[in-house]
Amino acid sequence: MDLLRSTEKEFCRLAAGPARTDFGYGFNTVQDPVWTLSQVLLATGGRIVCGAPGANFRAISTDTRTLQPGDLFVALSGEHFDGRQFVREAVAKGAAGVIVAGQVEEKLPVPVIAVADPQEALGDLAAYRRTSMPNLQVIAITGSSGKTTVKEMCAAILKEEYNVLKTEGNLNNLIGLPLTLLRLDASHEVAVLEMGMNRPGEIARMTEIADPDIACIVNIHGAHLAGLHSIEGVARAKGELFAGGKSWARFCVNLDDKRVKAIARNCSQQQITFGRSRNAYVRATHVRNLGEQGMLFTLHVGGDKVRIRIRGLGEHNVGNALAAAAMAYAAGVKPEQIGRGLMHFVPYDKRLQMETIGGLSVINDCYNANPASMLAALETVRAMKKNRKSVAILGDMLELGETSDAAHRRLGETAACKAFDYLFAYGQFARKVVEGALDARMTMKQAKQMEKKEDIVEAIVKLIALGELQSGDLVLVKGSRGMRMETIIEQLKIRL
Fold this sequence. Notes:
CATH superfamily of the largest domain: Mur-like, catalytic domain
Distance between the termini: 64 Å
Number of strands: 24
CATH architecture of the largest domain: 3-Layer(aba) Sandwich
């Protein structure tokens, strides 16, 4: 099977030839030479229902809103829509061909390629593109928390040495990862790919598509438990990255995470270890929290060491930096270049970003949330507090399944134990958060369940008017992506 797979990859590489791509956020990729129909059929195993066999396609598109003339339209479907409903619109906008599940009811003036599953076909096209670039290094990153920050840190380091393609925004699933790979062109030397999931099998499929040379499981915590049911389920799902790795891949292993260590113990691939452990090949010493100025520490890579400062807030970002450093080292970057790259890292949007609003120091950590990332954010603010007051504005942590009630109660307890002066909880589980805070000795004046985001903003305005909050005091805003907690910050900017 391995011989057959390698033979197929070599055939795809020879057939694909060189490529040049460009990318817009509408998920189009421009190529020269263009995709040929024979390449598409080879990659997807599809069959032509109608249309000219000699067709070419300038790009792969999944969105009729951004589709350009000459694109090949892949008619993806979801729980609430059928992609075949957009085929006629795609052709009217100039699509040079379409990929559909089954057959279309009417004959079209362009090639129609029938496949069993268009999403699977999209992944197959991306895998074809990846195999056409044998000199490319692919780095794959997954984890329960911090993987986007690690991806950004890793890319910042690698840009010191290579031309890098990286996952943008939240394109880290079975649609986003293929769309990222389809942006590859001949100038790219390294691709840094983030892999997210909420059910078994997703990481395995992304690993099959990306065929990574370097892989890292940043950590394993209780997240997406609605689909994975237990921390053991999370470990099995994340472990699919290592399980699907080729024999000559390099694995970056977090020695501070017992579940990651357990997974790696059964792997024969070369391993670069990282963590705060003295046994880690990539480690940190003399760590100093600089508050709003970030973290200062000595980075050790084997026998080499360099003193660096990163702009990421909180001690957990030292661990993120070590993961990124381990992957960069595996990719061939020298320790001094790793240090420079980390110092150039800029925190990603809505991830512990600090700004001053009406004199308050507001920390925007609204991108997502699970118990581990909530703990890290609360601890980050606690370490920065000193003589200032602190406010936690917390939204629901989603996808925790049966553990939701207990997790949100613990969240409230933690906020109280981290000495927050005020807690405003919003969402379906707000009552549980407040109950936990009250159990941990917060008063009803300090911890409140809020029905509307506007009520939270009004409460902050009143605390300022009463002199309870003053210039320089800290306000943390955090919740899962679906809670859109950043709208509270937008309202604060208007009111303060």
